[in-house]
Amino acid sequence: MLVFKFGGASVKDAAGIINLTKVVQKYAGQQLLIVVSAMGKTTNALEKLTKAYVDQKDDIHLIYNEIKDYHFHILSELFDPSHPAFDEVANTFVEIDWMIEDEPHDDYDFIYDQLVSIGELVSTRIVNAYLNHVGLTSKWLDVRGYIHTDNTYREGVVEWAKTCEHIQQDIPALLQKGIVVTQGFLGGTSENFTTTLGREGSDYTAAIFAACLKATSVTTWKDVPGILNADPKHFKDTVKFDQLSYTEAIEMTYYGAGVIHPKTIKPLQNANIPLLVKPFGDPDAIGTVISETAALYYEKPVIIVKQDQVLVSLSAKDYTFITEDHLSAVFSLFAANHIKINMMQVSALSFTVCFDYREERFDNLHNQLKQEFNVKYNNNLTIITVRHYKQEELKALIDDRTVLLEQLSRNTAQMVVK
Ligand SMILES: Nc1ncnc2c1ncn2[C@@H]1O[C@H](COP(=O)(O)OP(=O)(O)O)[C@@H](O)[C@H]1O
Ligand SMILES: N[C@@H](CC(=O)OP(=O)(O)O)C(=O)O
Question: Which CATH number belongs to the domain containing residue 351 in this structure?
């Protein structure tokens, strides 16, 4: 069986959904599970809605109506007004109506997951309805009953044994009857609350299903020809990799290459399932095949740009040396706030650490760190990571920016720039 993942860009409008069905029709006769993300930039819009709701802002209904109008406009381009998909989508949005009428709960991450998850619940309703509309037999599956997570909202940790057991119990029989369409990015807790797996987590969902079902391959359909040596939105003259090793793909995604979610590759590597990254606009193109046995040749360095970074410098309040006790206290605070460290450096009197800036988490951490340390920080920074680099290439990348932190190993150079 095959697992396909269609991301937001591939289903951003009615033409995208029509294209998706054409891609799927090429695989008629094969068992197929399709993981779909929210349409276009819906997740960003739902994040805005969540913030407006928690802050009880006046524009909450404006933001919500824009999200609804966007989806109903796509529906009206695909179906006659009497089609049941209109009701299915309206009923899904009712969950938001109920939530935003109430006073906000005080756990931001919990609210976030209950609201933001609507994007995938709605997109899969529309995709599933359209596949059936064109004569393909397809079933909508609520992923929250299959991908079981703990209750770390916004970063649900998958309970693999329970997840695989449920997937293996039900999905093979469903696949024999037709296509299965389900939501990326979402999970469910044992109390039936919705969790999300981290932004851009739909690739990871596809990998979980593939690993549990021992799929032949996973294909993620993207708006790029495959995996390139750098993000084409930031760099000209990129080159595509026809093949890539699991290890290189893990390294690239770990450092922030946004093309694949970082947790995706490992379960596929463990189960020896190839990951194909292909352009949805040219489904017959070979794209990039990620597998164990890729030929390793780097015509150009691999460049990864991670924006919206904050660099924090800590020193002890009594100006003593930074000790293991200090570091242990600092790491505990990072862990408690679910903040992943991207780069760090220790000197005699200070500890410098760079991570993704996320306002609510940063404010919390900052307040806690201030109690024990002198804290200085700089935000709006960028980490440039270069793999398989030549020293002379680094200068051109920095351009006229200031380097605040630099680390070089044999294979990888990393620089925090302003
Ligand atoms: N090394 C890279 N190769 C290809 N695309 C990349 C790379 N790094 C970042 N990207 C970006 O990833 C985007 C595709 O990933 P993403 O937006 O997550 O897709 P989707 O959400 O549709 O699954 C591309 O539009 C491209 O800008
Ligand atoms: N919709 C979610 C999950 C996801 O994976 O989306 P995409 O496949 O469009 O990156 C997000 O935007 O984070």
Answer: 3.30.2130.10
